[in-house]
């Protein structure tokens, strides 16, 4: 609800910026100040000659010298199109000619469309408004991201805020830099800033992604040595290879790939750059959210702690991975009781696999009893076969034991790479829960995290498809306009 209010405030800012921009352009757009970029070395205005193909569309309203540059102001009269030829007569008799293509729309806004470059009075206000909106977006996304972290509200919305924040920060910084170092006076230049941002982002993230790709590949080699050569244990190597191929395809210019000399249109090149940059932003944001979710410590007021199951030993004992989850839950509950005097009920969750001598929940219960946890402090969920069912069926047994789950404070314990996904699945099952993180081996962590990231992508595949389609539509539109 809080994030919805922030988005509402941001939407109001954006709408107001658009309204004020339109109003300002309409108010000042009936005049157009043409900077001829002709410097005469004097502040004395030469004799001018203005020729119009249709003098009912515009008229010259003023002419002056500004810092030795010839500046001519035109006023819109009626909707239509006209060409304007400007010549002047300096003392030596040389008379250069300026030819412009003007258009006046129904709002009496005068556009300079010379060579397809759109200029008009009030455009600078649009750039300032864009900066204002980008600043508001950056402030709001950082606020929402920080607020989610503080409240332990780890979700897809948090990932989106992080990804948008990364791109928006680059766009805002680059637009501000261009404004301070050069004059943005046309739609084409503004569009070039947007398109160049994708290239800057991709270039800037390359060192980070290179380090991550190397770590993933190296950890996969260790994983294969310790856990065997299975397809799932090679995801890091595959990811590194795909990323490298993608980077190779973006090298060079919009005419051809530098290494392969393969030609393709500028639009395809920009789409490739932006799609790769999009997934890099989402990947890095997911990394940040996953890491922060493992560092978040739930409040010590939990009523129930769900322990998410995984495989057990052939003799019914706990694997190191599952034991780590149970130990983390017990350590949290012990600390909660020491600080608040409140016990939490453990909910071991996991059914019996075809090759298991008992259910995972039963194995966890036996371990809990062996370390001194009382029978009354344990309720079992022994039907689930995956994490989604862990949450779904645990919710049912909690409600049977203690009433409506919305009135209960819930935590769940799982391995660190799995915590973020646990937040997502709990919310999908209609309740809020806070994650308790258990450690795992470093070489296993990177590959397991990558599996979780891929799972998140698949889970939100339609959202990502929509975003990519919007990127494609934006790039195509910008290239058509530019």
Summarize the structure.
This protein is α/β, with parallel strands linked by helices and 482 residues long. The protein has twelve helices and eleven strands.
Kindly describe this structure.
With 482 residues, this protein is an alpha/beta fold. The chain has 12 helices and 11 strands. A 4-stranded antiparallel β-sheet has the order 2-5-6-7, with no helix packed on it. It has a 4-stranded parallel β-sheet with strand order 9-8-10-11. A 3-stranded antiparallel β-sheet has the order 1-4-3, with no helix packed on it. Helix 3 crosses helix 6.
**Strand percent estimate:** 15-25%
Number of helices: 12
Run of helices and strands: HEEEEEEEHHHHHEHEHHEHEHH
Distance between the termini: 40 Å
Uncertain residue ranges = none
**Number of strand elements:** 11
Structural class: alpha/beta
* Biggest sheet record: 4 strands, antiparallel
Q: Estimate the helix proportion, in percent.
A: 55-70%
Give me the secondary-structure topology:
Elements (H helix, E strand, L loop, with lengths): L1 H27 L2 E9 L7 E6 L5 E9 L2 E8 L3 E10 L7 E8 L5 E3 L10 H29 L4 H26 L5 H41 L7 H16 L15 H30 L8 E5 L11 H21 L4 E5 L10 H11 L16 H16 L7 E6 L3 H10 L5 E5 L3 H18 L1 H21 L1
Parallel strand pairs: 8-9, 8-10, 10-11
Antiparallel strand pairs: 1-4, 2-5, 3-4, 5-6, 6-7
What brief labels describe this structure?
alpha/beta, four-stranded parallel β-sheet, single chain, 15% strand, 482 residues, 11 strands, four-stranded antiparallel β-sheet
């Amino acid at each position: 609800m809080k994030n919805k209010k922030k988005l509402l405030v941001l939407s109001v800012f954006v709408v107001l910026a658009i309204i004020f921009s339109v109003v300002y352009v309409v108010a000042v757009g009936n005049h157009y100040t043409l900077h001829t970029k002709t410097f005469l070395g004097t502040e004395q205005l030469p004799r001018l000659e203005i020729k119009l193909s249709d003098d009912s569309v515009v008229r010259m309203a003023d002419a002056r010298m500004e810092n030795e540059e010839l500046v001519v102001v035109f006023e819109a009269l009626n909707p239509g199109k006209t060409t304007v030829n400007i010549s002047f007569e300096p003392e030596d008799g040389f008379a250069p000619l300026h030819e412009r293509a003007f258009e006046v729309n129904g709002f009496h806004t005068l556009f300079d469309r010379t060579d397809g470059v759109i200029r008009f009075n009030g455009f600078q206000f649009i750039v300032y408004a864009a900066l204002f909106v980008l600043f508001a977006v950056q402030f709001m996304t950082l606020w929402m991201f920080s607020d989610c972290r503080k409240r332990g509200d780890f979700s897809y919305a948090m990932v989106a805020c992080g990804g948008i924040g990364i791109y928006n920060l680059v766009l805002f910084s680059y637009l501000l830099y261009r404004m301070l170092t050069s004059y943005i006076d046309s739609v084409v230049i503004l569009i070039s800033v947007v398109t160049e941002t994708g290239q800057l982002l991709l270039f800037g993230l390359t060192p980070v992604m290179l380090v991550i790709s190397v770590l993933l590949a190296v950890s996969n080699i260790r994983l294969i040595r310790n856990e065997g050569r299975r397809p799932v244990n090679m995801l890091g190597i595959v990811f590194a290879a795909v990323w490298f191929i993608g980077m190779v395809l973006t090298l060079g210019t919009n005419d051809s790939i530098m290494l392969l000399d393969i030609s393709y249109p500028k639009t395809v090149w920009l789409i490739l750059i932006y799609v790769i940059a999009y997934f890099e932003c989402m990947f890095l944001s997911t990394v940040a959210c996953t890491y922060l979710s493992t560092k978040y410590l739930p409040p010590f007021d939990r009523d129930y702690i769900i322990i998410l199951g995984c495989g057990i030993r052939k003799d019914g004992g706990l694997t190191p991975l599952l034991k780590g989850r149970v130990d983390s839950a017990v350590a949290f509950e012990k600390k909660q009781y020491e600080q608040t005097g409140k016990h939490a009920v453990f909910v071991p969750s996991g059914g019996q696999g075809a090759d298991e001598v008992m259910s995972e929940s039963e194995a966890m219960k036996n371990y809990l009893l062996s370390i001194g946890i009382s029978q009354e402090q344990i309720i079992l969920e022994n039907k689930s076969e995956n994490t989604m069912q862990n949450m779904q069926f645990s919710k049912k047994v909690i409600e049977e034991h203690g009433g409506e789950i919305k009135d209960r404070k819930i935590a769940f314990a799982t391995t660190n790479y799995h915590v973020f996904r646990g937040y997502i699945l709990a919310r999908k099952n209609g309740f809020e829960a806070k994650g308790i993180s258990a450690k795992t081996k470093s070489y296993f962590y990177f590959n397991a995290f990558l599996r979780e990231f891929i799972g998140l992508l698949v889970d939100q595949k339609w959202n990502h498809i929509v975003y990519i389609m919007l990127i494609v539509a934006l790039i195509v539109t910008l290239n058509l306009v530019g």
